[in-house]
Amino acid sequence: MKILHVTPSFYPATFWGGPIWSTKAICDGLAARPDFTLRVLTTDAAGPAVADRLRRVPLPYRVSYARRIAGHAVAPGLLAQLPAALIWADLVHLTGTYSFPTLPTLALARVLGKPVVWSPRGSLQATQQWPDAPRKRIKHLVERAAQLLRPAQSVLHVTAAMEAASSVTRLPGIATALIPNCVTIPPHSLRDFRPGGALRLICLGRLHPKKGIDRLITALADLPEQVTLDLYGGGEAAHVAALQAAARPFGARIRFHGPVQGAAKARAFADADLFVLPSHSENFGIVVAEALAHGVPVLTTTATPWRRLDHVGCGRCIDPARTDLAQSIADLATADLAAMGARGRDWMIRDFSPAAMVAEFAALYRSLGAGQLPLHNEVSL
Questions:
Q1: Are 23 and 57 a contacting pair, CB within 8 Å?
Q2: Do domains 2-182+353-369 and 195-351 have the same CATH topology?
Q3: Would the N or C end of the chain have less CB density within 10 A of its end CB?
Q4: What are the extents of the domains in the chain?
């Protein structure tokens, strides 16, 4: 079966956060299966500035990077390649919502009679749930156009029940398939928690207003001096500068490290006692799964789909409106963090393997290729 992935940005464009990794994980898994042939059509956008271009890396499948000339993903070369690529494909997997490739891909797929799996990657959910979401009127127009243009054989891929509920509100009547993201499980290694009585907080991922990092910085004022915070990730320059200004009074207690990958990311988790993500909105939150896979307990909010943290015993999920974030951190500091981390790692091994995710996508592609729309499947993280 021939699968075409159309996405506004693709690996190694890791500036754009979790969706880059999760989309690559799907493609890597499919490319390893003999019954699928995979192509990716994307842009060379490596960051927000037009001059931010990718340094391409070898991948075991064909990836076409069209030159971005404006915005996030305005790339005329992508449109030029799209008709032939869609004619080649049996099915198209579209990632993104309010981006340049979305409407042309849906329209051409409808004209050519190609089924579509559409991964909004949390953008519909954020527009629905976040009161200050930008350009809501324009986004509403894009959604209406998408509803008119999309093929009848369209399935919205969501990663959690919370995302499904918000997304279907924006796109009434569309079929959904709930397939959680996967996480790579690193080798187990022995580690110490709270060395010398310190409490090392970490937050890793794109620095964006919806992540609530400003609340985390403020919370440090109500915590002892031995509590430190390491922030890993990049973001829009103005927002990063605002966070750095808020952190300045704390001196060396708060450190900004920029984006990390591979071994550097593993070291960041190994040097942390508690992962904190006080987010206002997450469709999945792959960084939560990564922290748990590395054996790091997690404190996050009910605006993410990780409410089972409390049930599993590997962290805590609190109301994002609560003002006692510092107290929640202090409470977890007294817990057995090593045992919590071990429970979280076991949970990731059990339920979030790459093989399980790829198998679900393969089944979804086959059912769509056979003309069958899936029933909405409810899964709770």
A1: no
A2: yes
A3: N
A4: 2-182+353-369, 195-351
**Which tokens hold the place of 141?**
């127009």
Report the distance separating Cα 216 and Cα 146, nearest Å: 37
Give the C-alpha distances (Å, rounded to integers) separating 75 from 40, 104, 116, 156, 157: 15, 12, 21, 24, 25
Instruction: Provide the β-strand partners of residue 316.
Output: 299
Model's pTM, two decimal places? 0.77
Residue 68 backbone phi and psi in degrees, to 5? -80, 130
Sign of the CA dihedral with 10 first, then 16, 17, and 18 last: negative
Query: What does CATH list as the number for 195-351?
Result: 3.40.50.2000
Q: How far apart are CA 262 and CA 78, in angstroms?
A: 30
Please provide the CATH number assigned to the domain covering 2-182+353-369: 3.40.50.2000
75, 67 contact by CB (below 8 A): yes
Contacts for 324-327: CB closer than 8 Å, 24+ residues apart: 325/215, 325/216, 325/219, 325/278, 326/219, 326/220, 326/221, 326/222, 326/223, 327/222
Of residues 191 and 311, the one with the higher pLDDT is 311
Structure tokens at 28: 């890597």
Residue entry with tokens 């591979």 = 262
